[in-house]
Amino acid sequence: xxxxxxxxxxxxxxxxxxxxxGRSQExxxxxxxxxxxxxTIILGDDSAVETKCEYCSEGFGPPRGTVQTWKSGPTVxxxxxxxxxxxxxxxxxxxxxKFNMSGSxxxxxxxxxxxxxxxDSETEAQAxxxxxxxEATREEFEMSLRRKHTGQTDRTYSWGxxxxxxxxxxxxxxxxxxxxxCRVCKDRAKKAKGGKA
Length: 197
Ligand SMILES: [Zn+2]
Known about the structure:
The chain has 2 helices and 7 strands; from the N terminus they run βββββββαα. The chain is of the alpha+beta class. The relative contact order is 0.14. The termini are far apart. Helix content is about 35%, strand content about 30%.
């Protein structure tokens, strides 16, 4: 391998920035109990009952105070190269870097990156991650149009706009309904508190 001339090869221990776009699972504070693990329900006679939060309970397990959500978007991580592999397929050289999963020092939980995923600065990595995100969004949008309207290429874009407008309207309507439902509960809770004091 030593006779292969690869420019800008990174070494074990090098610190750099990893740019990616994708869906990732994250845990965030439960939007119902706000991490308190319990919620208070106001009954019809305005008496308050505390009960465990069902929203952040997984299966029959106890509430966790956090929920798992899917996030998609550009991500940039500061990583340390843990190793590399160089493969030479008849002159076509491929370099793969290994790095630890974030927050893990365990040598068995490696992730891999290609040279064009790695950057010297956070700014460069962020620009690349953003570029991949907008490309992926455009591709997903075009693919959804093709799926829905195969063969009607001249109509797909306007159809797409209508579809998204409709969806947005529908989601706004739903958002209003859910906001309203929460507001009603809050008002009731306030009244119940005021009544007892
Ligand atoms: Zn909860």
